[in-house]
Amino acid sequence: MIESKNPYTGESIEKFEELTNEQIDEILENADQRYKLWRKTSMAERSEFMMNAAEELKANKAEYARDITLEMGKPISQSIAEIEKCAWVCEYYAKNAADHLADRPVDTDAQKSYVSYEPIGVVLAVMPWNYPFWQVFRFAAPALMAGNIGVLKHASNVMRSASNIQKVFERAGFPKYCFQNMTIGSAKIENIIKDKRIKAVTLTGSKPAGAAVAATAGSEIKKSVLELGGSNALVVFEDADMDATVDTCVQARFQNTGQSCIAGKRILVHENIAENFTRKFVEKVKNLRSGDPMEEDTFIGPMARVDLAEDLEEQVKSSLDDGAKILIGGERNGAYMQPTVLDHVTKNMSIFKEETFGPAIGITRFKTMEEAVELVNISDFGLGVSIFTEDLDFAKSIIPEFEDGAVFVNELVKSDPRLPFGGTKISGYGRELSLDGIQEFVNKKTVYIK
Questions:
Q1: In angstroms, rounded to a whole number, what is the distance separating the alpha carbons of residues 148 and 321?
Q2: Which fold is adopted by the domain 2-228+427-449?
Q3: At CB < 8 A and 24+ separation, what contacts does 74-78 make?
Q4: What's the angle, vertex CA 63, arms to CA 92 and CA 51, rounded to 5?
């Protein structure tokens, strides 16, 4: 049995029986057979179904958001925002997929030559718990619009949300088996990837999980896309708009109780403004309301599991042992971790060099632009970086210096259906969203007519 527990109360929500191998085989066979029909549907038909999905999400966002909050502790207002964002990505691809996948003519010596973008089949998605709807929909919307079929292996602690996602597509009128949830544990992923009916796999998760999935997919010569961890830096230059930057940095670190791959996890601040920035930042963090995630004004809820809070607590303690100074927080009670800010953090400390997945952040000072860039790039991760400055010409000039997959100026790093999303280094490879995302799982077919 796979059990979903409420991290705020510790109570069991629901137990799910894991699928047998025979049931998995039936799901994959149904998906494969549906693909043969779905790939022949028109873009207009797919668009209509996808718009229905957007409407279903908006109409029943309270229902879906409630289960997100119960299962992984996300404050309810943020859960509702997550559902609304899923509706946005459905609408985006319903309106833009036809253009993204239109034949691309190429001038050659042929009478006609072009590139066509055709579906590849059944795609497996292995998804995490921290954004249990959004992570899935940013895969599913482009995949289904491209003519592919989706099967989902979700995180074990959000199986009710996984069931709800399948419900969304069913309520939207998608033909049966276009999207199917599989209630399984991680041990069964390898054999599913190896199944001939699976043509590709996408994973959002940790480095070990990504490495395992990539190795299996590689051994079968199957396409994979990996969106892994991040240790995004928030780089505050001397001329930054102080109050606006503080507000953005607080949001970047502490939304979703800090449990986000693209959260700001390291603050690098110019030494000349460090004291003022730190004072204002800590004051804002003090005012974040912690409590019952079902209450609308709660901003910080429990972490999704007790062991995750324990891991974060250990990173904080290790950094303190190495010389960091605590400014606020640092205490844990079960799955709840106080919003925590450490100062005088150096590059060798856990809270700087490791991914911190929860409401804790360290502040590091720098003297020069060159030092700031070095501190950003020294990380093994490369998901994104935010830089804060009023000099936009300066900002544009240093963007090429950063090795990350995204650079945001005067804004937190965030995913947007209109922009490609993905990282470098151990943050993964491939891109989701926008034109790039929908073209990841297609056959880019060269056509030459003489």
A1: 51
A2: Aldehyde Dehydrogenase; Chain A, domain 1 (3.40.605)
A3: 74/256, 74/257, 74/293, 74/301, 75/257, 75/293, 75/295, 75/298, 75/299, 75/300, 75/301, 76/293, 76/294, 76/295, 76/296, 76/298, 77/296, 77/297, 77/298, 78/255, 78/256
A4: 25
Q: Domain boundaries in the chain?
A: 2-228+427-449, 232-416
For 204, the token pair is: 């959002």
Quick one: pLDDT at residue 264?
Answer: 98
The residues with which 125 forms a beta bridge, in sequence order, are 152, 202
Burial of 319 (0-12, 13-18, 19+ CB in 10 A): buried
β-strands 325-328, 340-343: how paired? antiparallel
As a whole number of angstroms, the distance between CA 260 and CA 321 comes to 26
| 289-323 pLDDT tens trace | 999 999 999 999 999 999 999 999 999 999 999 99
Return the DSSP state at 405. Answer: S
Residues recognised as catalytic: 227, 261
pLDDT, one tens digit per residue, over 46-91 is 999 999 999 999 999 999 999 999 999 999 999 999 999 999 999 9
Query: What's the one-letter identity of residue 179?
Result: F
